[in-house]
Amino acid sequence: MELVFWLNGSEARAEEVPGHWSLLELLRDRFGLLGTKQGCGVGECGACSVLLEGQVVNSCLTPAWRAHGRRVTTIEGLAAGGRPHPLQEAFVAAGAVQCGFCTPGMIMAASDLLAHNPDPDQEQVAGALAGNLCRCTGYHDVVRAVRKAARQMVEDGS
Ligand code: FES
Ligand code: FES
Q: Which of 29, 106, 133, 148 is the most buried (most CB within 10 A)?
């Protein structure tokens, strides 16, 4: 199977993609985008979260063919203008990154939330990240980081 799609803003082409491949396999094994993590592999942990047409999906459960003709954004594609995304900056500043394994997925899920709700309250952030498991942080600093980034983005007008 040949796939042509938009990957982090650039046209991407992949030939001879096995029909059984997931989007996660396509991103990691064909494009070397290792920021998207392979955790449970069965849709339970959210470590593999990416945006497909701007909506967060578990890439381990998404067939690779669904990317064809569509926009895929991974953690590598979030920064713009030579600086990290406000969510990336806020996660570091708030101490929301410990081992970091869950962080790319958390940030992709949070970016989907902020695209639809620029000023989420604590509960709304927690709800949006309910599918993203973290064994290190206890979530408090993660929620704080997302709300901090939201305020920053409103200030920046981004
Ligand atoms: S690796 Fe996809 S949800 Fe866990
Ligand atoms: S920071 Fe380690 S799993 Fe979340």
A: 106
Instruction: For ligand 2, atom 2, name the residue with the nearest CA.
Output: 99
Structure tokens at 149: 């980034």
User: What is the Å distance from ligand 2's center to 79 Cα?
Assistant: 21
Residue 45 Cβ < 6 Å to ligand 1 = yes
Q: Is the CB of 43 under 6 A from ligand 1?
A: yes
49-52 and 71-73 beta bridge pairing: antiparallel
Q: What CATH architecture applies to the domain 3-75?
A: Roll (3.10)
For the chain, the structural domain boundaries read 3-75, 86-156
Q: Which fold has domain 86-156?
A: DNA polymerase; domain 1 (1.10.150)
Nearest 10 degrees: Cα torsion 105, 99, 60, 120? -20
Per-residue DSSP letter, 7: E
Distance in Å, CA 139 to ligand 2 centroid = 9
Output the pTM of the full model: 0.96
